[in-house]
Design a protein that fits this description.
This protein is mainly alpha-helical. The chain has helices at residues 2-23, 28-36, 41-59, 64-81, 97-114, 116-141, 152-159, 162-187, 194-216, 225-245, and strands at residues 85-88, 91-94. Strands 1-2 form a two-stranded antiparallel ribbon.
């Protein structure tokens, strides 16, 4: 019985090899490309943007609590991945830039659908949650691990910069998020599509956010700070354009900004 099962497995493997040889060309470059394409940063970058757009578009049809929760989630992820440096089309950028743009999109959606009071409430909740995050991180990094603990070192390496980053970023975020709110209200005076208002407001606020955050918040661990600021802003602009494209024609004929 055991031998027959082993023989079945071997025959299935050989059959799979024959099918693979028939379907795919015998080309090493093509095979290598097919194996590695799933790991391209550019592809993952685009897929993550699509995911942000899809989630935001879906939850914007529900009650305001979903968008507020999405703001908080992206705020947490932005803090966790702000130190992860990646290469996109040859440019060195922070991997958390997508979440920063996603926060602005969510806030603009909140103001557009439910009014400025709820957008401001989301900003205040985000700031409070970041302060709580600092306190909880401080406590947990100071717990003495057991001799069998294998992950304390990794948590410490990841989170040791978090209090400094969050504290420095809180005032910057408060200024730039409120700047985005002001810019969104300004452009709402004109008969513009939501996507255009989001692009203009987010582009202006993110210019100051990128410059201030890189100057006062980021630790000196990046190879080239000037290129990081420039390329990070360019990537944020690309994120803003791509994400906003998913909201062309959104909510035409109904603008809640005055509520």
């Amino acid at each position: 019985m055991k031998q027959s099962f082993q023989s079945l497995v071997e025959n299935s493997y050989l059959l799979g090899q024959k099918i693979y040889a028939k379907i795919l060309p015998d080309n090493l470059f093509f095979t290598t490309f097919c194996m590695q394409i799933a790991y391209l940063n550019e592809l993952l970058f685009f897929l993550e943007i699509v995911f942000v757009v899809v989630v935001a578009r879906i939850i914007s049809n529900f009650e305001k609590g979903y968008l507020k929760a999405f703001v908080l989630l992206q705020g947490l992820l932005a803090n966790l991945f702000v130190l992860k440096e990646i290469s996109i089309f040859g440019l060195n950028v922070c991997s958390g830039d997508i979440f920063v743009v996603g926060i602005l999109l969510s806030l603009n959606l909140l103001e557009y659908r439910f009014g400025k009071k709820h957008a401001q409430s989301a900003i205040n909740t985000l700031i409070f949650s970041q302060l709580a995050f600092i306190v909880f991180v401080w406590f947990h990094l100071r717990f003495l691990p057991t001799n069998n603990d294998l992950f304390h070192f990794h948590y410490q390496k990841i989170l040791e910069f978090s209090p400094r980053l969050v504290l420095a970023g809180l005032s910057i975020s408060f200024l730039t998020l409120n700047l985005d709110r002001a810019m969104f209200r300004f452009f709402s005076r004109f008969e513009l599509d939501f996507a255009l208002k989001n692009i203009f407001a987010s582009s202006i606020s993110q210019f100051f956010d990128t410059l201030l955050f890189a100057t006062f918040a980021l630790p000196p661990v990046f190879s080239d700070m000037i290129s990081l600021v420039l390329f990070s802003y360019l990537v944020k602009l690309a994120c803003i354009l791509l994400i906003s494209t998913g909201f062309i024609g959104f909510g035409q004929g109904e603008d809640s900004v005055s509520k």
